[in-house]
Specification:
Blueprint (H helix, E strand, L loop, with lengths): L2 H4 L1 E4 L5 H17 L12 H4 L3 H4 L5 E5 L18 E6 L1 H4 L1 H7 L2 H9 L5 E9 L9 E4 L1 H4 L8 E6 L10 E3 L10 E5 L8 E5 L14 E3 L6 E5 L4 E3 L10 E8 L22
Antiparallel strand pairs: 1-11, 2-3, 3-4, 4-13, 5-12, 6-11, 6-13, 7-10, 7-12, 8-9
Bound molecules: fe (ii) ion (FE2).
The site of fe (ii) ion has 4 residues, from loops.
């Protein structure tokens, strides 16, 4: 594997079993504490994310987002609350001590350097559950669509907290696909969170179809860190197995890149981005 050639890298045994356990325990605690939050279904399907103020105002918060399939047609939870969350986001790497500590382990900074970053800032974090049976698909996308900078600088650090396999919805990537163009940009449609969001097409080249070539599965054991170039098309399927596939991801951008005011993710003025 070669970063320049492939657009992704895997680093086995990057994080200790103890750190993984701490992140999973902390996530479970946050979910228990958040049981009274307003409902927000997280999905990369356009219609559910658009106009979601809970999502748009989460750039400096630690918030839970539900799985679509956690509810029946009448909006009642069909699984226990602790099995209903799609992810926690998007600022726990700065506002939660446990996440901050693990996010800033030397291996994370070394990974950023291996991806050619000079002066990275930690932009957002997500604890992704990929729950048993109901863990949703993440449609094929490029991270630069959602975390846009000029020039393009975003790099994803994706840490497997549990084994990620074909059965429980591992990542799939298009090796070398980062040399293709950015297809779309997701941005705020107006100045207020209530104005919602929109996708703007930048290039008509189609993204790969889910679950087959040129995408290849990235099955990795727990503890592996996967680095993803911001232009690399990637996808993960639904989890129909009985096992969760928890992961923790941090997205980095270069300090000197231009970060547009209409990017969906905005941090409050009193919580500036920080590096490692
Ligand atoms: Fe992604």
């Amino acid at each position: 594997m070669d970063w320049e050639r492939d657009g992704y890298l895997t680093i086995p045994d990057a994080v200790s079993a103890e750190d993984r356990r701490r992140l999973m325990d902390r996530a479970a605690e946050i979910v228990r504490e958040a049981a009274d939050d307003p409902v927000s279904v997280f999905s990369t399907h356009e219609q559910s994310r658009t106009s979601d103020e809970w999502f748009l105002s989460s750039g400096g918060e630690v918030r839970c987002f539900f799985e679509e399939e956690a509810f029946d047609a009448d909006g009642r939870l069909v699984v226990p609350i602790e099995r209903s969350i799609n992810k926690i986001g998007h600022a726990q790497h700065d506002v939660d001590d446990v996440y901050s500590e693990v996010s800033r382990r030397p291996v994370m900074a070394e990974a950023a350097a291996a991806a050619g970053m000079r002066d990275p800032l930690l932009l957002q974090s997500m604890h992704i559950f990929k729950q048993p049976r109901i863990g949703g698909e993440v449609t094929c996308h490029q991270d630069a669509t959602f975390l846009y900078t000029e020039p393009m600088t975003v790099v994803g650090l994706w840490l497997a907290l549990e084994d990620a396999t074909l059965d429980n919805g591992c990542l799939w990537v298009e090796p070398g696909g980062h040399r293709g163009p950015l297809r779309t940009r997701f941005h705020r449609a107006g100045a207020s969170d209530a104005d919602g969001t929109a996708f703007t097409t930048l290039d008509d080249t189609p993204l790969p179809e889910p679950g087959r070539a040129p995408l290849v599965p990235v099955e990795v054991p727990a503890g592996t860190l996967v680095l993803l170039h911001g232009l690399l098309p990637h996808w993960s399927g639904p989890n129909r197995s009985g096992r969760s596939r928890e992961a923790y991801s941090v997205h980095l951008v270069e300090r000197d890149a231009d970060y547009p005011a209409d990017n969906w993710l905005q941090r409050p003025a009193d919580l500036p981005l920080r590096g490692f």
